[in-house]
């Protein structure tokens, strides 16, 4: 029987290369995401299959259909349910979710439905938890919903700043649910987070910047994220219709020349 580590480290990754590097570094579990600059969204089926077949440690897949806020439409929740099932089919060992209501409380019915879709695989509730108004009450609700783990910075900008609150959550949780510290954990604060927060699990990025050598692109292809943390971009039907109309008018005008 393999002994549990004294401290379990979960590494947040978005590629096969990062997954392999995290495993070499001693990570015990991976959270696999896409679009980490936007807080993490659901990775592709190909990425899930590639990562789960490349590493020997458990891979938990985030299921989040877009960046921005955590209040989801019925259509988005249907996508999430399908993504939970597909992630497991492609080798995921666990699922990471987070859904809130308009009052920023845990969306209990939606959470229970996603836990059910996970078919008994462990489910983590991600840092949407840091937006709820009463974290102890939310922890109780999540434990009752079948969630096994909560990722949190204690409601603060970083886990170091929220370490005292994390410790309170650990005490409140007891053995019902695992409280995992995450958010801005670095080499210079990890010891304080573990000591003050009294956690046995931490969630880290641990990245370094990579580039294309001396290459300089002549145009910018990346766009800045919205300044509003809860905002996201969505297609506007009127804008599409307007551009189509203007483009067609331009073709008609060109034909008259």
Keywords:
257 residues, alpha/beta, eight-stranded parallel beta barrel, globular
Quaternary structure type: single chain
Main sheet strand line-up:
1-2-3-4-5-6-7-8
Terminal CA distance:
81 Å
Beta-strand fraction estimate: 5-15%
Question: Order of helices and strands, N to C?
Answer: EHEHEHEHEHEHEHEH
- Summed over residues and divided by their number, the pLDDT gives a mean of 94
Helix content: 25-40%
Number of DSSP strand runs: 8
Rg (CA only) = 21 Å
Number of continuous helical runs:
8
Q: Which residues sit in consecutive blocks of at least 5 with pLDDT less than 50?
A: none
Secondary-structure class: alpha/beta
Shape: globular
Query: What's the story with the biggest beta sheet?
Result: 8 strands, parallel, barrel
Description:
- The chain is of the alpha/beta class and 257 residues long.
- The protein is 37% helix and 13% strand.
- It contains eight helices and eight strands, in the order βαβαβαβαβαβαβαβα.
- Helix 6 packs across helix 7.
- The longest helix is centred in the last third of the chain and has 19 residues.
- It is globular.
Brief overview:
It is built from eight helices and eight strands. It has 257 residues and is an alpha/beta fold.
Topology diagram in text:
Elements: E1 8-13, H1 16-24, E2 29-32, H2 45-54, E3 59-62, H3 74-89, E4 94-97, H4 108-117, E5 123-125, H5 135-145, E6 149-152, H6 163-173, E7 178-182, H7 190-197, E8 201-204, H8 237-255
Parallel strand pairs: 1-2, 1-8, 2-3, 3-4, 4-5, 5-6, 6-7, 7-8
Helix pairs in contact: 3-4, 6-7
